[in-house]
Structure formats: structure tokens, C-alpha cells
Amino acid sequence: MLRSKVFLRAIMEMSMNKIQSIRKDWNLIESLIRDNSRVLDIGCGEGDLIQQLEKNLSAKVHGIEKNQELALNAIAKGLSVTHGDAEKDLSQYSNQSFDYVILSQTLQAMVEPKKILSELLRVGSKAIVSFPNFGHWKIRLQLLLKGRMPITEGLPYSWYDTPNIHFFTLKDFQNLCNEMNIVIENSIGLTSKGKQFPINGSLLSANIITSEAIFLLSYKDFEPIKIKSSNKIFVKNSAIVN
Amino acid sequence: MSNIELIDDNNLKCRFAIFKNANLKLASGEVLKNFNLAFNTFGSLNENKTNAILICHALTGDQYVTGHNPITGKDGWWARMVGPDKPIDTNKFFVICSNVLGGCAGSTGPKEKNESGQDIYGADFPSVTIKDMVNAQSKLMDALQINQLCSVVGGSMGAMQALQWSIDFPDKIKSVIHIAGALKHSAQNIAFHEVGRQAIMNDLNWHKGNYASNNSIPERGLAVARMIAHITYLSDDAMHRKFGRKLQSRDIISFGFDADFQIESYLRYQGRSFVERFDANSYLYLTRAMDYFDHSESFKKTLEFIHNPNEHLKYLVISFTSDWLFPTRENREIVEILNSLSKNVSFLEIETDKGHDSFLLDEPDLDVAIKGFLESNYGNEHE
């Protein structure tokens, strides 16, 4: 409870800059999603992103939100949102029941990021994961020069009250994907000034200038096969993975 | 030929739907040839008949959901939720609430005269289930010429009816608001009901249910049943907050069995006042109907069934952290099934110490959720 209050206050105190950068993050996420898709947003907050996707892409959306107040506000907008903890509740969703599962700025706050990552790609055909890059030069510099846990615009918390419990860099994430046989279909970096660039071969420099990263992931670049059938269950669970 | 008559009752301040030769087949196999439903409506039905909401009452509720209740002389049981400019806004919505089949506020039940018109049903009334109540309500909707309800809303036994509506008549509703209910009545809940029923049936005034012809009322038994049930509607924390160990009208304990403690006095009052407005047999029948409610197997199967037109349905499920009668866990079972089938569902668990009764009390988050859910879904279709 205390943590969520601290978290809420931090959100409210966030500068306009940060809010704009979140919107930018959302627009990038939107650009990765096809029209009329089924989208699940984990940690959907008040549901602004899924509302945007519903409106702009005619997406069929659903959200999961842990905080009661945020979930309530999303539900009051008429959005389909489950109040709960994604780390426990993702298991209730069927295999491949969404086209995209979004985990925006939340992976670093999860207890078991690896398990979550595999859950994302069980529930969704594709996963969109965005996170703050702990390898950004400002963070490296702060740790190097001050010798203390870095506090930046993107990671504005002190070590003792941060919801972020797993810090990782761009490179760490790519290595994990590799290890889990996850295909990175697309990856976009944002600098701390909000400049956008593709993350590819030049990993060393990307890992330094990327403040926030957005990844589009899948197990393989496949199209879900939907077999026409009058049986509803069959249609819904018939996407073939791997 | 079945025939339906709608009449206004000025004394009881409600309306009656009188079904003759309706031959309502009950889940038990018995048939009610004729039956009545007492109901009330609030607000007005729009031209396209798209703004109707059915509110299903809980175990001891009635058709007086809001406004003045002439039986108790108090406000309706959900007056804080339903009315002009209230969360369920009767300026926008046409609200219907009917007394359940088997109830005792005017609808056909053990307190009413049987089909011969001579005697009171008493214990001869057939067993009714939640399914039967909903079936009767759907006939009322037909009588009111409402093809599709904008929403069915209910808490506790009302939530069971709302769920039953979504199973039996999905095409006749657009959305369901299910508050503090469950897929099935748990063993613990059946146990509490059984203790209440035993209290009634062991009252010498019960006369095997035919107390009307013996000019007696099993008051003591019914009061005890209510006292037990009332404890289950609260929570340990709320009871402690409200009463603690405070003494009633005295400074020291009496070393006797008077109502020394405020909680005792409160429960005795609850028991006493309940007897004035509720029928003991009705209590037996309705608690039994709740006990028989079990969709732990059938809910998912029904949703998956190809001929069950439920694709359009929207669900809102709400639970309360301190509700131990219909705990979050049991409400979540419904949500889990709906999510596993990719249905349009929202779920909210509201943090409160007020227990199961929270849905009737001042819970601002409940108001916001219900109002937002109803109005955004209604608004989206009428823009």
C-alpha cells in the first residue's frame, strides 16, 4: 500500500517532459500494432494507452492493473480491465488469446522478469516490451563519478523506495531474448531528449545513448493460423506456436 | 391461453404483474400455473427501449430499491445507489426491480394464497431456485415489452441472479454487474444458512411451515436466523470498530445474560426488526435457492456453447477485501473463466473493512465503477 502511494505521488510529480515522453513511447507502441488486433496491456494504469489503441486502431483491448485507484479509473471509462497482479494472473489467459501483449515500463518492477517474458509470448503472438536502459551514459556516469545509485528523469527513485527491483541494460535484455530463443522483430531506442532511432548492429553506442528501449518480440515471425470452424474454442486456441 | 395483467397497487406503492395460465415450470419439475410478481420502476423508458436496467435484490431485499418503502417506512434498500443523479441515474436509465419468486413483499411465495385461492401456501409452496426467479423476471420483461436490458445488476443473491441471466438469456441483456457473488454457494455459506433454518424450524410456532393457519409466527427462530446471518454480513474489523467491547446502557457488566454488550443489543434489535418485515418460510425457501446455486461446472461450458449468444456481453465483477461470505477468491473464479475465454470483463476488488454488506453501504469506489461502466457503455452506443 505504502509503495503504491509513493508510486502514485511520483507519477503525479512527474514533469510534463516525462509525460510527453510517455506519450511518445505510446505512439511508438501504436506504430508497431496492426489494426483490429487483440491487445493486452499489462500495468495499464488508467487505461489511456489501450483507449488510444481502441480509438485509433479499432483494437479489441484488455488491461491488467494492480493499483485499485488506477484500475477503477480505467473501468469507469468503460474499458475492460482486470484489477490484479499480472505476475499471478497472467496464467488465467489462454494460449495465444491476444495478438499483442504490451509491457510498458514495467519489466524492471517484476519479481520474475524471465517468467513474465515467456508468459507474454504464451498469451500473445507478439510482445511489446519497453523499459528504461540502465546502460545509458548518464546512469553510467553517475555511478562512476558519484559512486551512488543513479537517479535520473527516467528512473527518478531513491534505491529504498523504488518500485524497480531488476535493473538491466539493453545488452542484458538482448542476451536474455537470445537465451530464451525469442526473436527481436523490431527495436527502437529513445534518447533522453526523446530522439528516436533504430537499435541494431551498433549495439555498443545504442546501449550508451538509449534512455528508453522498445522491443517487438515473438518466438518466430509467424502468422497465427486460424482455422475456420463453427466451434468457438477451436478458433480461439488454434494459433500454432513454434 | 396464458394471460398477463399489469396493475398498480396504490396501498403497497408498487405494481403487480399477474400471470395466469402461465404454467411456469420450475427447476424442481413442479409447475406454477399462476403467479404474481410485485415490482417497481423508476425513471422512464426511452423510445427505443434501450435504457432499461434490471436490479436484482439480495436475500431479504424487495422491489423498493429506492424511494419510500411503505412496508418499513424507510428509504429503499439501495436508495444511495439508485435515483435521480445517483450512480444508477434514473434521469438516464429506466430501472426495474421486482420481488423474487418465493419472496414475501408481494410476489408469489409461501406467504401468499395458493392456486385454489383458499389457503396460504406455507410449506406446500414448491422449491424455487435462482434459475426460476430469473425465468419469472424474464417473463416480466416480456410483459413490459423490453427486448433487451441495458444491464442486469445485483449484489449477493442479486449477483447470482445477474449471473443466471447471462447464462439463460444472454441475448436479452447487454451487460452484467455482478457484485459480491460467486459461481456457487460455498459449504460455509450453506452451513450458516442451515443454522438459520434450524433456528426457524425448531421454533414451536413454526408448525411445519403452516403457522398461518395456527395463527402464530416463529418470531424467535426467525430473529435468531437473522442474527446469525447478520454476523456474516459484517467483518471482524468493522464489528470491532463499531462496537468493540462497549457496554450497552450500563457502566459495569451484569454477571447475567442481559445484553451487556452493544453488539448483543445491536443483534437483538436486528433480529426483532427483521421479524416485522420478513416471512419465516420465505427465508427458508430463499436461503435454499441460494444453497442450490452452483455454476462451477456449467458456467464455462455454457459460454463455450456455440448456440449461446454471449459474444456481445460485457461483465463487471466487483468484490470487497473484507467480505468473507463471498470472498474475492470466489468472485475471481468468474473473472478467470471469462478471461480464459477472452470475454469483455472488468474486475475490481475494493479495499474496505465493511464486509459483505459493503455493496449496500457508502463505498465511493463502488459508485464510480458502476456509474462509469453503465454510462460509458450506454454512451458509446448512443453517440
How would you describe this protein?
The complex is a heterodimer of chains A (242) and B (383). Chain A has 10 helices and 8 strands. Chain A is of the alpha/beta class and 242 residues long. Chain A has a single domain (2-236), classed as Vaccinia Virus protein VP39 (Rossmann fold, 3-Layer(aba) Sandwich), CATH 3.40.50.150. Chain A has an 8-stranded mixed β-sheet, with helices on both faces. In chain A, β2 (60-65), α4 (68-76) and β3 (81-83) form a beta-alpha-beta unit. Chain B has 2 domains: 3-187 and 294-381, Rossmann fold (3-Layer(aba) Sandwich), CATH 3.40.50.1820; 189-288, Rna Polymerase Sigma Factor, Chain: A, CATH 1.10.1740. Chain B contains 10 helices and 15 strands. Chain B has a 9-stranded mixed β-sheet with strand order 1-2-5-11-6-12-13-14-15, with helices on both faces. Chain B has a two-stranded antiparallel ribbon with strand order 3-4. A two-stranded antiparallel sheet of chain B has the order 7-8. In chain B, α3 packs antiparallel against α4. The longest helix of chain B has 18 residues, at 364-381. The interface between A and B is medium-sized, with 27 and 30 residues.
Q: How would you concisely characterize the structure shown here?
A:
Chain A is α/β, with parallel strands linked by helices.
The whole-number mean of residue pLDDT values of chain B reads 96
Number of helices of chain A: 10
Overall tally of structural domains of chain A: 1
Using only C-alpha atoms, the radius of gyration of chain A works out to 18 Å
- First and last CA, distance of chain B: 42 Å
The radius of gyration over CA of chain B amounts to 21 Å
- This entry's quaternary arrangement is heterodimer
Helical content of chain A, roughly?
25-40%
Unreliable spans of chain A: 233-242
CATH domain topology of chain A: Rossmann fold
User: What's the main sheet of chain B like?
Assistant: 9 strands, mixed
Structural class of chain A: alpha/beta
Give the CATH H-level superfamily of the largest domain in chain B: Alpha/Beta hydrolase fold, catalytic domain
Q: Biggest interface and which pair forms it?
A: A-B, 27 and 30 residues
How many structural domains of chain B? Answer: 2
The CATH level-2 architecture of chain A is identified as 3-Layer(aba) Sandwich
SS strand fraction of chain A: 15-25%
How many DSSP E strands of chain B? 15
- β-sheet strand percentage of chain B: 15-25%
